[in-house]
Known about the structure:
It is a single chain. The protein is mainly alpha-helical. The chain has 15 helices and no strands. Helix 4 (about 70-75) packs across helix 15 (about 255-285).
Amino acid sequence: xSTRTLISPAQLARPRxxxxxxxxxxxxxxxxxxxxxxxxxxxxxxxxxDTQEVIQTPPTLVPGSFAPENYSRAWEVMDLATLxxxxxxxxxxxxxxxxVLDVAAAYSLSKLRPVxxxxxxxxxxxxxxxxxTVLVVPQYLTVLDVPIFERNLLNSPWVIWLPxxxxxxNIFLLxxxxxxxPKELLDAAxxxxxxxxxxxxxIVLPVSRPILxxxxxxxxxGVWKDFLWPxxxxxxxxxxxLNVGIYSLSAGVPVNVLIAALTIASVPTLLLFLxxxxxxxxxxxxxxxxx
Length: 291
């Protein structure tokens, strides 16, 4: 049985059909490339322009001036070294908590099958339907005065780490991957006397490296790009993240220097994607061992 496509093989074999196919293909790919890379090119190139050129209308496609000192000036004026360290510290902490607690939750729901596990998973996934902005007020009131402990978490790393742990999407990804691991493999380890914790550490985690890599990237990027929550909960300038710090220090800074600072802030996540793009796609589509 042949696969149905938009253009039949007979039409594609004709010179006119082949030309039409490649024209449409090039137009679609070129359009999407321009839509995604155009803003990135504008940001990087504007960081090399002088103040007058960056605000002129219409904008120049290729910088007429070349001022690389904008980037060194942005590094010093915005104190990007401190902001980068803060953001990296928060991101790695969130990553550690998510790997430990989200993996434990997903493993419990997938392999230990607790009572009301399906109901817990359903309620967890239902939270994905709630807009994040709706949760800002209750979360803020919670960290302002944590119940039972009666602690104020503002300006502390915990205000970033604790809310990031409750990531239903990452738990769902991990559970789906754990579900694909053959039950016979875990049963054999259990018969040999391995405890559930030993099975998780020695069998489940080693074969789950692709999805763990995806969750790790999501955790780091999630903290790196967040703006609203750190702005509300980290008012101390010495504790702010990269995005919030650049926003707080933007008053009186020339536009070209500000754009250079934004370019520097974007570089780590872009490099992270370029280096691990195969892992991201492989982890999202991987399905564990096949028995």
